[in-house]
From TrEMBL:
Reactions accelerated catalytically: tRNA(Pro) + L-proline + ATP = L-prolyl-tRNA(Pro) + AMP + diphosphate
HAMAP family: Pro_tRNA_synth_type1
Assigned keywords, A-Z: Aminoacyl-tRNA synthetase, ATP-binding, Cytoplasm, Ligase, Nucleotide-binding, Protein biosynthesis
EC numbers on record: 6.1.1.15
Organism: Evansella alkalicola
Protein family according to the UniProt entry: Belongs to the class-II aminoacyl-tRNA synthetase family. ProS type 1 subfamily.
Protein's UniProt name: Proline--tRNA ligase
Molecular function GO labels: proline-tRNA ligase activity
Described purpose of this protein according to its UniProt entry: Catalyzes the attachment of proline to tRNA(Pro) in a two-step reaction: proline is first activated by ATP to form Pro-AMP and then transferred to the acceptor end of tRNA(Pro). As ProRS can inadvertently accommodate and process non-cognate amino acids such as alanine and cysteine, to avoid such errors it has two additional distinct editing activities against alanine. One activity is designated as 'pretransfer' editing and involves the tRNA(Pro)-independent hydrolysis of activated Ala-AMP.
Amino acid sequence: MKQSTFLAPTLRDVPSDADVKSHQLMLRAGLIRQSTSGVYSFLPLGLKALKKVENIIREEMDMAGAQELLMPAIQPAELWQESGRWEAYGPELMRLHDRHGREFALGPTHEEVITTLVRDDIRSYKKLPMTLYQIQNKFRDERRPRFGVLRSREFLMKDAYSFDTSVEALDESYQKMYDAYTTIFTRCGLDFRAVEADSGAIGGTDTHEFMVLSEIGEDTIAYSDQSDYAANIEIAAVNVTYEKSDEELSHLKLVETPGKKTIEDVANFLDVSKEKLIKSVLFMVDGEPVLVLVRGDHEVNDVKIKHLFEATIVEMASDEEIKKWLQTVPGFIGPVNVQQEIKVIADHAVESIVNGVCGGNSVDKHYKNVNPGRDFQVASYGDLRNIQPGDPSPDGKGTIMFKEGIEVGHVFKLGTKYSDAMGANFLDENGKNKPMVMGCYGIGVSRIVAAIIEQHHDDDGIVWPASVSPFDIHLIPVNMKQDDQRELAEELYVLLNKEYDVLFDDRAERPGVKFKDADLFGFPVRLTIGKRASEGIIEMKVRHSGEVIEIHKDELIEAIK
Ligand code: ATP
Ligand code: MG
Ligand code: MG
Ligand code: MG
């Protein structure tokens, strides 16, 4: 590529509206331009990096046995109503309507589309397992678009969806994707960590996020200094255990349980320790305060407990028992209604109720053997969560430390949430109809490009890892007016282009301008052709180490390797 006609408009000054390094550098090096808030064009240089990342992802997805398809960005509202997310997804969903008044969404994710697609075309266990993926623009009306393409409203995502015949088979599909993600982020030159995560509005159980370690990350990772334990603090907090004094618990008066007025009474009655009781999860259903007692390492924040002067104690039962119970809750008609009624609970627990996996408010009913995570998703309390650096690690090994991370990938076990809601069934070996067991797996492709720059830059510009650099080589004749320099450069351009992606700075600019741009662009190898051109001598500079060597053109190909 010849730079004289290449669209890579560089900026000398730091743009005032860009707060983080990657955003500044992407603007300064002419990788992106903003169209409107949270919406960007990728210019040729940016697109080349994006394609490099995309291709790494594609290679690893294919290697893991996933098949590429392409789904529409425009999705009919009916699909989202079927899954219950038309209401639940909230204002982040970009909604539009056509000339006939029919409503649509611009896809922020594709569970609904893929589930109906597979539902209609796969009927037999013989076709399963199957994992499908696409690389496509997603739309989310982010409350605060920022940091350039790190959090934009239109962005490129790789999203994959797995379909299995059983929970055990899903475990395998999930592990394959998890491993592929590890390879992808490693190949992109990223320093990252996989962490346990909160399953959020999408629903589901087992889930991990892949976090690029960076001070500007919007997520905080709690990790142990002595083990592999690492979790998003959104979920880590609920695993913290701490002792509460009697005074701290005294405000808990549970009057609706006959004869059991205090936390002590209730604990004795249920034959659990007070500590376990305090690690319960609270919410309101239909105006009634409900305390779901969770056995396990879950806590609830005392601020919330204060709201519950009246509560009924329930332990968890099997899904079936709980579903039955839910039918008896007056006014329980579905997500919208429940959402309105719930005063304490966050999104996450709404999903749990809707899925019929938790609940309780009838006097003297006590469900047994709850398994948090399996039977119940713990509500997300947002800012009320409080794991802190210095806490003992929930796995009992070491001490908790904090680090900021940028979420670049996310893997979920969805289970049958969408296949149940949308009737995606298959016939098993015995001709029995069963819901498919699903997983979903996202990667922020455009976000990765910014995350790479965030981790790979210096004062002069970007320092691309070779695997994702837009060009391999920057070829720079110092003075195009010198015949020997220009001729050697042209000769090398033809030669190198056969094997490498070369940007040839054929501009009649001053050397200072050319070198400043070269450092800003940050390709791995810079070849400068100057005074010694007539001898066939070239200067080679390695961007990441700054190492400079002089080399004869005949030895060049060997040296670049
Ligand atoms: P975040 O927590 O940053 O809002 P998310 O959890 O909402 O992300 P997912 O639904 O898990 O995102 O989507 C899969 C991937 O898409 C994310 O891991 C992230 O890399 C990317 N992504 C999500 N939102 C954006 C965005 N607004 N801009 C760029 N990339 C995004
Ligand atoms: Mg988000
Ligand atoms: Mg997230
Ligand atoms: Mg996520």
